[in-house]
Amino acid sequence: MDSKAKGIMLLGEAVVDLQDTDPKSVAYNIAADKTAKVFAVLIHSPTASLAGGTDFDIGSGANADTWKQTVDLSSMTSTDDYMYITASNVKYTIEPNSAAFGIKPITGATADAQATMCVFGKEE
Question: Measured between alpha carbons, how far is 67 from 58 in angstroms, rounded to an integer?
């Protein structure tokens, strides 16, 4: 059995673009023969202030809007800041096989900023 199916663990990690005009960035590609239950996302080590970044969508699909919407990262103004975003007490849909899970700035950071995004969950 694949270790990602045995418990909640790191599924994927990537540096993502978070400025206001940036397109969706992908942090985790779900395998063609798997589905995923995402439990949490960690955003850390921004390259610049995320001030102004009051609305990010996280998930799959063209708009990354399947997991969590309207995530405010604007308080991350230092390069050693991080935010741990969880799926507690909310119903979510299983992410389908071959989906690209990531983040899309709706109202992104004013500065040209990137950060590392880690996706935690379980694959089946």
Answer: 6
CB 74 within 8 A of CB 51: yes
Q: Which residues contact 105 (CB under 8 A, 6 or more apart)?
A: 17, 18, 19, 20, 21, 22, 53, 55, 56
Residue type, 30: I
- pLDDT tens for each residue of the chain, 124 residues long: 566 667 789 999 999 999 999 999 999 999 999 999 999 999 999 999 999 999 999 999 999 999 999 999 999 999 999 999 997 777 888 999 999 999 999 999 999 999 999 999 999 9
Q: Which residues contact 73 (CB under 8 A, 6 or more apart)?
A: 18, 43, 50, 53, 54, 56, 83, 109
> Amino acid identity of 8?
I
Is residue 113 within 8 A of residue 20, CB to CB? The reply is no
- Check if the beta carbon of residue 102 is closer than 8 Å to that of residue 41: no
Is residue 115 within 8 Å of residue 15, measured between CB atoms?
A: yes
